[in-house]
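[SOLVED] Need 3D model of a two-part complex

Original post:
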Amino acid sequence: MADDLFMRLTTVHRPDCALFTEGPLPQPVPDPDRLAETLGTDEAAAYAAQCHPIFEDLRRIVGQLAGLMILGQLTEKSEVVDLDELDLCRQRWEACAERLHRLAAPGALAAHLEQLMASHSACGRALGAFSRLPALGQGETVFDEISRQIQRAYAHLRAATSQKAGLEMVDLTHACCSCGR
Amino acid sequence: MADYSIWVCEYSYVSKYHKSGVLYGAHNQGYLKLPYCYVVIKGKNHVAMVDVGYNDKEYGKTLGDRFGVENWRNPKTVLAEVGVTPEEVDTVFITHAHFDHFGNVEDFPNARFYIQEREIAKWVWAMSLPDRMRWMMVAVDPGDIVRGAGLARERRLTTVNGSVSDVLPGIDLHLAEDSHTFGSMWVTVRNDGRDQSEDVWVLAGDLIYVFENLRGPGDAVDAGEIYTPVGLAVGSQTNLVLATEEMMKQVGHDSNRIIPIHEERLRDAFPSRISKEGLRITEICLADGESSKVA
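Solution:
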């Protein structure tokens, strides 16, 4: 494992890679739908259903943080931290924390829940970095940190996607690619 | 004299797509083939693209299984048909943030990307709304915005406010506010380089899907032809019609010079061929000295 980490650090990833961030690495995990088939229990299905609002929360939080970071950096306006959207994003993150706290995963789905929690934690670190922006002006270091945490949050969430369980990154209903099927 | 060559490159398609998706009000009128394409603009020592398609690794299985999207090919394969590599692309104009236009930025490592600031800002706003208003987030992948943030960190993303002239020589960007999306953009190529150009091409993104959006049946209102907007509008069909009129003014009301990239019948209007992968390459125009890629 140490060798793997060493190789990652020295040969694969750039210094600003999101995978340098602390915590367990994003990894694909068995999705609730597949496990429901395997386990044959209602418990897994109930877990999948409870995941929906949490997944949706995280999907939005990640997208909002990324968009706010783009606007903050490219417009060079630190006022981005005063936008209602950032406040609403923080509120959603706090509500998501409560939902996550109440979510109980069957043993076989613990790894799935860990990915959601890791994504949530990374979002929290990004939000914390946003809070430091006014003090530091347009601090490049802060934007680097925000970017890294957002990418990490997305990677964890991506690892927890499940098509059949409806935990998907993009809502294709009525999309221009696929309208109405 | 033409400064740029323009090709529409198909990278995937849907065989049966609801006609009502491309044409407002066309309910129960069956299906049509919907090609997925991006545009290559080459000339003046630049290789530019309008949109970059989607990444099959991210979306392919879902699109294939659920929506019948077929025959996706990567940009390296598709662009080779017009003698270009993804690495040579230096400029990309993202018409809007839907995943099938903005979903493959990582395949263009040397490009600078342009997108309307409003497109980003309003998606951020939409994502802050209550779940019951989730419809406004349709077809946007937060991952694309994340990748946009990565581009911003690499200083390869430029946000545009409204219209901008000469982003590349003779190439202008225009905002269609609250139309197909919040900040949709079209690209205008003045191919003779003149301010009052007589050789204008408009690359319409999803503001125009098919020819009927420009030349729809007008019998019901005793007109020969009328603009009939695209079915999907996060903004409004009114704004789509107004944007169509602006585009038409730019081309002197010659609708043949507005290029709808989802239009299968481009083959009837321009020279084209099918590649060995079964995808169409359509040649809109050639720069001076450039050889045809469809002959």
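Edit: Chain B has eight helices and 16 strands.
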